Predict the structure of ABC-type transport auxiliary lipoprotein family protein.
Amino acid sequence: MKNARLGVVFASLLALGGCGAVSALNKAAIPLDAYELRAPSDMPQAGRSLNRALSIEPPTTSGALDTDRILVKPNPVQSLYLPDGRWASELPAMWQTMALRAFEDTGALSYVGRRPLGAVGDFALISEITDFQAELGDDDTATIRLRLTARLVRESDARVVARRVFSAAVPVEGTETLTLVNGFNVASDEVLAEMVAWGLQGMGLRLPAS
């Protein structure tokens, strides 16, 4: 049986039927605890630095994800937001910050930023998040699902030099907000570690195995 507390509150929320529902939920005058995901704390060190500059754009997302609310799916056709928690910033901005930190922590690049260094940088990372939700199961369990498509673009000629889809599915025991957030952290760490290794390889450097 799903967590009773969540079940009672979810019953009072409308499924997301469009921008109006999203707007109404976001404007609700209810104080929510804020949660922040962080980049992995154990990124492998490159050992040497590439003379490369990377700009990381905030990912694009669907309307339901383009918010600071934490998305939950009680079933495949219904989407709700957690009633008592939110992200510390909107998902695209939070993910951009995590990606910046993850690339920086490897020490592999001469520059990592939100915009190119100078008029034109060397590479840009463009991505789209299509899944970032907790999918509720039976018996007070859930699966955190993350899916992201990333493209590494050479700035000089706008050529896509690499493209890859990253995904993670992390089972969690319990549907309390903190339990779900910890699951999001595990899924994000997994995808970020894979994406950083892939991105650096696309720029000419292979990270050592962690």
